[in-house]
Amino acid sequence: MNPPLLSVRDLAVRYPVATAAGRVWLQAVGGVSFELAAGECLGLVGESGSGKSSLARALLRLVPASGSAWFRGVDLLTLRGPQLRVIREHMQMVFQDPQSALDPRMSVGQIIGEPLREFRPQLDARGREQCVLAMMQRVGLLPVHLHRYPHEFSGGQAQRIGIARALILEPELLLCDEPISALDVSIKSQLSNLLKDLQQQLKLAMLFIAHDLSAVRFSCDRVLVLYLGRVMELASRASLYSAPRHPYTQALLQAIPQADPQRPGRLHPALAGEAPSPLAPPSGCVFRNRCPLAVARCAAEVPALRQVGESLVACHRAEETGPA
What we know:
Blueprint: E1 6-19, E2 22-36, E3 41-45, H1 52-59, E4 66-71, E5 74-75, H2 81-88, E6 91-94, H3 98-101, H4 108-119, H5 125-139, H6 155-167, E7 173-177, H7 185-201, E8 205-210, E9 222-227, E10 230-236, H8 237-242, H9 247-254, H10 296-300, E11 306-308, E12 311-313
Parallel strand pairs: 3-8, 3-9, 6-7, 7-8
Antiparallel strand pairs: 1-2, 1-4, 4-5, 9-10, 10-12, 11-12
């Protein structure tokens, strides 16, 4: 069996926060572990503040982190200087807000071609332009767009520019940080199809971040559910959508809009309340103050991530939550 392309172990991200009592540490990601195979798409799902973006940025070394993240045989968290620069050629990111991610002073050709200038110095101007035009065609942009500027494009077109820039170096791993959440519904479908097609054609490993489970159902092979920086559940797409084990996963599925809200088989009432502050997380299970199944053990003991059915679940009562 081939080793995973990416192997993350006990990844943690903390940010210093100034308070009236002095500086304290906010733990955005707390000991997350998972593996990602070459060519696989893993969905990373959770409400705002669950640590999704912090995890992705830690993998790209944009924020400091502890633990380990092995990629192509090296621990990303130990790299410095030239070594880090070399590995970044193989990992790229698509950001949530396409307009904010594009330099308004640069043309489309300059934006997409910038990674080539940095990592392919042997290419001359004509060679770079040919590569850029080929990638623009691949993502659905026209040659006439080459010398235009980001403000001249819609949100969907701007995201296509961002995708082209991320893929121009032919990376092995693409991190997509809610790439469709800022777009209209019809454009979301187009971009989801594009990313899925590109992932399969280019045999990309992809980490696809979303705040709801409906966004990853089409694209992902497996889904990892985060809450307050902790893994709640990790399962294949088929298992997670047909037999979710964690009460939080069930609540996220319940929140997906349905054409017939009265249809039978709904799991639980929609999740009530808001997530607690990561500056003061609950003891034991961090989800317990919103969980309909919480018992005294949930406050006293942090649930381990363990195999229950076909899922890895961090819940003391996971055996009670499966299908009847």
